[in-house]
Amino acid sequence: MSATRQAAARTRTLANYVAGRWHAAGKLFEKRSPVDDSLLATVAEADRALVDQAVEAARAALHGDWGRLSLAARVDLLHRVATGMERRFDDFVAAEVADTGKPVGQARTLDIPRGAANFRAFADLVKNVPTECFEMDTADGAGAINYAIRRPLSVVGVIVPWNLPLLLMSWKVAPALAAGNAVIAKPSEETPSSAVLLAEVMHEAGMPAGAFNLLHGFGANSTGEFLTSHPGIDAITFTGETSTGTAIMRAAAPTVKPLSFELGGKNAAIVLADADFDQTVEGLARAVFTNCGQVCLCAERVYVQRPIFERFVAALAERARAIQIGDPTLDSTQMGPLISRGHQQKVLSYYQLARDEGATIVAGGGKPALDARLSAGAYVEPTVLTGLPETARCVREEIFGPVCHVAPFDTVDEAIRLTNDSRYGLAASVWTRDLQTAHRIAGSLEVGIVWVNAWYLRDLRTPFGGVKLSGIGREGGVHSLAFYSELTNVCIKL
To answer: Is 464 within the bounds of a domain?
Structure first.
């Protein structure tokens, strides 16, 4: 028996969910804890044959019980899913904390509540979303009426990352199902647990077989590639690294699938000298260090107007040093580990690169001193850098860790230029008491979302997405439904 199979005998195995049934056969891989590197579970990797079965099951569902559900019944079912998630709230919290290492307080207040809220929000939205109707004149004077019918795309492939696994899974699955599609979802290989719980909740809520399918695995030469290149997949939505997005585009090109991408970012914050100082320091401490910096919206470049630059750097560094790092299951912990030891090595390599490029390490820059059990975990220190040129790799490349580079600026035009000088364009924040200046800056930034005197304040009805290498399309509210459905125009001659 292989080592992986022996491990499976000692711990649980997470299965794939296809056509309303669990499939645990085939090749297994390990999911290890980012906290102490212990084995959490073994996971069944979906092969090409199981991907084929999932596609067949999804198509059958569209022509069966799922496709025949009335809109009211579909909405009611999605509400039952949300209720089921809340009923198993503690299970979801435990799964998210174990897989990701994020603090339990964050999972309780953000990830799980927002996951359930997504199902309710999109269920309610689809009941009320309008379509178009136009009256037109005709040569015979009788006229005609044109109206639009919203139809599902059919089978949607949903691929989500490991940083906010349940939140981002629900952010895509909920509107896809609300629009009437059948879904095949693939979580990251790093975070399979909450996705399995979601499949259990779907099953318990009475989701028709094949309407929601869950496949585990990797990207290239594995489940992800089999899914994105499959001719039976009608659309793909993906959140993750830009390089993975380009690979998915290549895989999807032969069958011309619609794509919705939310990709990487190197987000900037602009701090003007008139900003509320304490509010701004606290807000940017959240923007830089939340979830160990592993949020696509986190700020990695902070531009501060010169009169308050030194004071701001000192205050942010003090805030970074005060963060409580430790066991994520403790309420006192403010920062847990990174997602894996592999990612830890990547972030630490950037810390070293920053030194090599001439940065001043104002705070952090290494691994924290922790007890013996946690020393095997993927922990790094929250880090504040200064002194790098704008051409430095640590200023140009996405690190995806609890780190930012702080640089001074003099004029508003300079701050706008520095912010826009990036291959990415996902998000930015502006901190000032002068709302006229805030409006001017916000309208000049080449990003998908701008916060003023806030960060990560999200209304689920608003458009969300990036420009440049940060993505294609918009999600949220009617913008999600626009992607997950097609409009058919019906012209009636009177």
So the answer is: no
Q: Are residues 238 and 349 in the same domain?
A: no
Same domain, 350 and 364: yes
pLDDT attached to residue 414: 98
Q: How confident is the prediction for the chain on average, in pLDDT?
A: 96
Confidence band for 473, pLDDT divided at 50, 70 and 90:
very high
How many other β-carbons are positioned within 10 Å of the β-carbon of residue 372? 7
The number of distinct structural domains making up the chain is: 2
Q: For residue 465, is it within any domain?
A: no
- DSSP state, residue 183: E
3-class DSSP assignment, residue 179: coil
- Pick the catalytic residue: 225, 262, 300, 381? 262
Is there a catalytic annotation at residue 190? no
Q: Of the residues 189, 225, 292, 296, which is catalytic?
A: 296
Q: Give the residue numbers spanning the domain of 293.
A: 267-459
DSSP state for residue 36 in the 8-state scheme: T
Do 244 and 306 belong together in one domain?
Answer: no
Whole-number CA gyration radius for the chain: 24
Annotation says 404 is catalytic: no
Q: Is 201 left (phi over 0), alpha (psi -120 to 50) or beta?
A: alpha
Residue 5 has a pLDDT of 41
Is the pLDDT at 456 greater than 50? The verdict is: yes
CA 106 – CA 97 distance, rounded (Å): 9
